[in-house]
Amino acid sequence: MGRHLRPLRVHQLASQMLETGRLQREPPWYRVVGAIPPTTTLVRTLPVQLQEKQPRKSARKPSRMFQPQRIVYPEDELRSTFFQDHPWELSRPRILVENDGKDFTRYDWSRMQQPGKQLNGESVIQRQLWLMEQQGLSKDEAYDISRKEFYDLRMQEDIERRVASEEALAVGAKFGKSYLDIGIELEGRALDEWKAKALALLQLKRGRQAAFSGAAAEEEEPAAAVVVDRILEGAEGDGAPTTASAGGLL
Fold first, then answer.
1. Would the CA dihedral through 213, 215, 217, 223 be positive or negative?
2. In 86-220, which residue ranges form alpha helices assigned H by DSSP?
3. What DSSP character marks residue 110?
């Protein structure tokens, strides 16, 4: 009986059982349920939808009903276009510290460079958006203007940095190695390590061949070094060589 028992019939069945004597006294909830009967439905109602959706033909409930709505800003498309054309701008260090959290309200995007703000890709995006909203330019026209201004300011920063470096060197300043020098040094170190490993591998293979032919293995060491040097000379324009190339010349 419990499986088919409806909420509205609980009080009615309890009253019948009291009348027939199957219940000796009233349950504690008897008068409360009689005064405040339970609801007729136990199914949760759907929440209010903030976005109009086309009704589906099937009676199946959507599986993504409770997902949050996607928030889209006008700058998102402009930002995607700029960083697709300039991916290396993402590798530049950025300053995220603000004075009071409202620095953006004091920026005037009628010009590209802002006092107290680092020049980066976000400057191009905000400048492009200002040109589109204030001067009514199209997306491509505003992008070309803001990009040209950005290139000019980047060139000016590079010239100022180069002049400052030359002035510092003129008065006796000493700088460390540049990124290019460090890269060349690491590349040379990797080539030296490869040369040692390739030479050892060639000597091992020549030694095995000499064991079958009866020749002395010590006589093959100068020849192995010559083979490794030839590999390094031929691979200067093709990148770092591998041990597989050494084995292929045997």
1. negative
2. 121-134, 139-170, 179-213
3. T
Checking if the pLDDT of 228 tops 80, the result is no
pLDDT of residue 8: 72
The two structure tokens encoding residue 216:
């002395």
> Does the pLDDT at position 128 exceed 60?
yes
**Torsion over CA: 203, 204, 209, 215 (sign):** positive
Q: At what angle do helices 139-170 and 74-85 cross, to 10 degrees?
A: 50
User: Which token pair is 153?
Assistant: 């300011």
Indicate the average pLDDT of the chain: 80
Buried b (16+ CB within 10 A) or exposed e, 163-188: eeeeeeeeeeeeeeeeeeeeeeeeee
Residue 40 structure tokens: 């007729």
d(CA 44, CA 152) in angstroms, rounded, equals 61
